[in-house]
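Researcher: I'm preparing a figure for a lab meeting and need a structural model of a single chain. I don't have an experimental structure, so a prediction will have to do for now. The sequence is pasted below. Please return the structure as tokens so I can convert it later.
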Amino acid sequence: MKKITSLFFLLLFGTISYSQYTLRPTPFLKSAIIFKNGDSINGYTRLASSAFSIKFKSSLNQKREKKIKYKEVEKIITFIDSIKPREFFYKHTDEDKFLHFVKLIHFDTINIYLGLSNDVDLYYSNSGIDRRTIQEINNTLIIKYPYLTENKAFIYSNLYRYFYNTTLINNGAHFEFKRFDFFLEKHNQNKLILIGTKGNFMYKNFKKSASIFFEDCPKLVEKISNKEYKLDQLPEIIEFYKVNCN
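Model: Understood. Here is the structure written out token by token.
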């Protein structure tokens, strides 16, 4: 009985300890919600525990927030940057039957969408809001692994700066891993195709996936097979496809 009690308190303490490191602010962002029936509302939106828990206010002074059913939503547009609003969608993919929360990062003949292992992080990334926990603010960041380089900024401009961080916590290390999923969508399709993944050891094979996706363009498939084009060159790949294959 003592062992069971000790185990219970150990699990409880571990859950509380973990939650203080992962619980992050989720403020309201100026936004517009476009519904699948064509209606829209303007105001402020926040994602609570996940992208599938949408809260809405017409104004920041409004006391009570309204719940929005994600299945009725086509997309959420946020206006952090007035010059270039960010668009988030609920889309079906070739991975499973459930909807995925993704961000449109490149609009063209073939669109590029980004998914993140934590969909709330995706929504708030580069929002100018400090979403660190109190513990993280107080702790010292001891190791950083840069994920981005300047020449890749055109596609990763809205991602987190680091693939993962190691933070000193109570004389130990807290690891935070992020997985980036990249999807492609042709305009005549209504389903996203997972083309490659970064940050996951069981990653989607880009060379194989891209060769299938662009099978109607042998020249491009050859370049992908020869590793002349890689995952972080998706906009260039699409441009080549438009000029030489479409």
